[in-house]
């Protein structure tokens, strides 16, 4: 089976790649402020169409999705598609470094054309962001595979916020249905502090009901802003079948650590005595543990769940060992090279090693987070546009940080610089990226536009000898990876997707305060085979506002 292509949603621009026969789905979304309470405490959030998380998009492979977005906020707004790999198309990645935001207050209109190309059922969440606000308008896009691409998974289910499971379409695990109908209204469980779980049960309602003897697929996504979550279901084991869009070896787990930005699919057999059971989510690696529980029921039974909740594991060694047990399923959907040609990633020679270390410090007396001594600052013009229009000079310089952290970082003495950070990569280079975390908190990194192979993790500092511990066979191809406290994680990938791509901390405050950078991958051929042209309705801002459009890419 393939990795990257499992979760590919390609935006299609202009006339080139849209196939006339592929259906179009049109959506009109209004973005507003509203009150949300993801962890029980009401706060101001961003709603899409009055909902948080936002509405689901039901679609199948190769659908073209057109979204008209009205920004009713009093600040500019961008929508990004976390976990959707936009092949050849960073034009619609929706990050501040790739797109101009939809101006504030204006009910102005933008159109995203996203072409789903997933070979397996997958889900993603778009990320709403404004420059000022820590806000995530988690919405979901559920792409079921079409009958054209065989899938071994039951239809996708909607994901939910804060790592809560959501009800799947009723299906037996053998029913490898590839039909289009992903499922299930999004329902959010009652989220309560731990200890109140039994009380929740008393008056609580099952968020959905299973039928004895059937098997259900749950998709669990951590769309939170900060905390790693542990997910478990009373009395039920979970068979892992998918993560971040890749099929996995089907190990069975009692609980799963889901780091910020990650998604898992598990199969759960309704094979216990018919009564209620709690799904429990609790935070990990945090001083104060927050828990939430929701009830799932069995059809025909109103019996309350057992009072005793399953406990979360303790410490991060457990979590690291669980990560080590994850394996790519090389036989699901037939093994074949992924679009990066890196199916045999273990036998490709590494052309470059980039070591990135995060740090915390201050700039002008304010807290900032940095990578290799620099904290990211947005220029007035999105990087991708400045690059395309040949206006980089005034906006940013390439490669201001080097491929290794400065020595002084080790003592914590290095001053942090604030600047736009853009690394360049040669098109199709196969690189190793070491994410080193010298801090005491856990990190979670996400790379837009790519799937990568997390080949190794370990405590302490990375050294070249650590390569001997790499999994060069069947690491699960993913888009988000954790780095444990005072540890390192190593990922490998081929930079074969031209564009300007954001590498960021998924922990929102860190991302927002500068722990992010962009990687510019330019195809020297300037060919439509490697990168699409910008869409006709591309918003322009900053230095590009009055510049003439460069000549389009051609075949
Ligand atoms: C998605 O499909 C499911 C099942 O077909 C349906 O119940 C649900 O209402 C649909 N959701 C949307 C947003 O269209
Ligand atoms: C790989 O996936 C296939 C299809 O989903 C499944 O039948 C098989 O058991 C999986 N292999 C392992 C080792 O889990
Ligand atoms: C990789 O490097 C080794 C040693 O430098 C060399 O012998 C081999 O041909 C290279 N393989 C490829 C595919 O370039």
From TrEMBL:
Entries under InterPro entries matching the protein: Cu-oxidase-like_N, Cu-oxidase_2nd, Cu-oxidase_C, Cu-oxidase_fam, Cupredoxin
Family according to the record: Belongs to the multicopper oxidase family.
Any one Gene Ontology molecular-function term assigned to this protein's record: copper ion binding
Superkingdom, natural source: Eukaryota
A UniProt-annotated Pfam family: Cu-oxidase_2
UniProt keyword terms in alphabetical order: Signal
Secretion signal span: 1-20
Positions of the Plastocyanin-like domain: 31-109, 199-297, 382-524
Protein name, UniProt field: Uncharacterized protein
Biased composition (Low complexity): 107-125, 135-151, 158-184
The organism's taxonomic lineage, starting at the top: Eukaryota, Viridiplantae, Streptophyta, Embryophyta, Tracheophyta
Taxonomic source organism: Spirodela intermedia (Intermediate duckweed)
Disordered as annotated region, ranges: 90-198
